[in-house]
Write a structure and sequence with these properties.
- There is one protein chain.
- Helix content is about 50%, strand content about 10%.
- The protein is an alpha+beta fold and about 375 residues long.
- It has a 5-stranded antiparallel sheet with strand order 8-7-6-5-9.
- α9 crosses α11 and α9 (about 240-265) packs across α12.
- The longest helix is centred in the first third of the chain and has 41 residues, at about 40-80.
- Bound molecules: zinc ion (ZN) (2 copies).
- This is MYND-type domain-containing protein.
Length: about 375
């Protein structure tokens, strides 16, 4: 490994390359690595008490920023593979991106389009386009994976742009904004105070963690029957098939991660804490696995082969949860594209049916 650049000993000021190994890759609030140098054991011991809190904060930030970037990459992946806006041209003028859709006709088409990556010339424009019109998508479809990375979070929104509020155990607070690129906010994680002062002109709205994910029952309702699928009020808010597909893609991401965790007997939390090179190699491997599963599944629609999952042997404490995951695995493994929506529809309506039955029974008892 290359020698770190020399710094000054925190205690005595002598030039040294030795650092506190625990927070060597720790970060400050600006996402910059800030090692603490000590020329030797004595100087480190002398500062031990004062350094403890700083060390913990720097390490927590490393995990925070890595986790945020990882999640943002995943969100970009599934937007790139499952893009729901038909864009035929993009023009950049006076710092603004103008997008052009084809002339509107009333035909119901396939709800996904190839992401027009060839129309953008730089990464920033690409990210802006990828997140275009994404209001609550990350909060709704990324919730489970966000929860895996950041156990404690809070849903928060500003005029319909949903983000996550992350209070760290160290007392610092951050915002996880996976779709901010459409507003020129490209970072995945931003200190809360800065975010609020820079991007918001009113107080944010806080909701319990998972609120947006829970709102997917609206989707189930829209899926009661196929005629309603295309006629429901929900359609005004977009094609429900898009939401259904995003829901399944998000489950696919979760399954891929669970598969990796079981196979490697590790977890994302452990991964984010690893040394730089190990972290980069392994996270690249995980992301490539996810990307290939997403594109395989989307390619299935064009007649390719879908991804394949073995049944995970991991036992869930909650038996009902296990059943849900198994069902998802089965659908992802064994359903042909033609019957995919039908199957989802029947599951949704079975669920709806049971709910109605329960409601009727409850009413009858009154
Ligand atoms: Zn020293
Ligand atoms: Zn340290």
């Amino acid at each position: 490994m290359a020698e770190p650049p020399p710094g000054k000993c925190w205690t005595c000021g002598k030039e040294t390359t030795k650092r506190c190994s625990k927070c060597a890759e720790g970060m400050n609030q600006e996402d910059v690595t800030t090692p603490t140098y000590y020329c030797g054991k004595d100087c480190q011991t002398a500062d031990f008490k004062a350094h403890k809190a700083k060390c913990r904060q720097a390490t927590a930030r490393k995990q925070l920023y890595r986790g945020g970037d990882f999640l943002q990459d995943l969100f970009y992946f599934f937007r790139e593979e499952a893009f729901d806006i038909d864009i035929v041209d993009v023009k950049s003028q006076h710092g603004k991106l103008h997008t052009y859709e084809p002339a509107w006709n009333n035909e119901v088409t396939f709800p996904y389009f190839k992401f027009p990556g060839h129309l953008v010339t730089n990464q920033e424009d690409k990210f802006a386009l990828l997140t275009m019109l994404c209001c609550n998508e990350p909060a709704a479809y990324m919730h489970k994976i966000v929860k895996k990375v950041f156990e404690d979070g809070i849903d928060t929104g500003y005029y319909g742009h949903d983000t996550f509020y992350l209070p760290l155990k160290t007392g610092e607070t951050y915002v996880l904004d996976l779709a901010g690129a459409q507003y020129g906010q490209y970072r995945s994680v931003v200190p809360y105070r800065f975010y609020k002062e820079t991007y918001c002109d009113h107080a944010p709205e806080f909701r319990p963690f998972g609120t947006a994910a829970g709102q997917r029952h609206i989707l189930d309702a829209a899926l009661k029957g196929q005629c309603k699928l295309f006629g429901a009020d929900e359609l005004q808010k977009g094609d429900p098939r898009v939401k259904l597909m995003l829901d399944y893609l998000s489950r696919l991401i979760n399954l891929t991660i669970e598969d990796w965790e079981v196979t490697k007997a590790t977890s994302l939390a452990v991964l984010f804490n690893k040394r730089q090179e190990l972290y980069h190699a392994e996270s690249k491997h995980v992301k490539e696995g996810i990307l290939s599963n997403i594109s395989a599944w989307m390619g299935w629609w064009q007649g390719g082969e879908g991804p394949s999952f073995r049944q995970t042997t991991k036992t869930h404490a909650d038996a009902s949860k296990h059943t849900t995951e198994r069902t998802t695995t089965e659908i992802i493994n064994h359903t042909s594209p033609e019957v995919f929506f039908e199957k989802c529809l029947s599951i949704a309506s079975q669920k709806e049916h049971k709910k109605l039955q329960a409601e009727e029974t409850a009413l009858a008892k009154k």
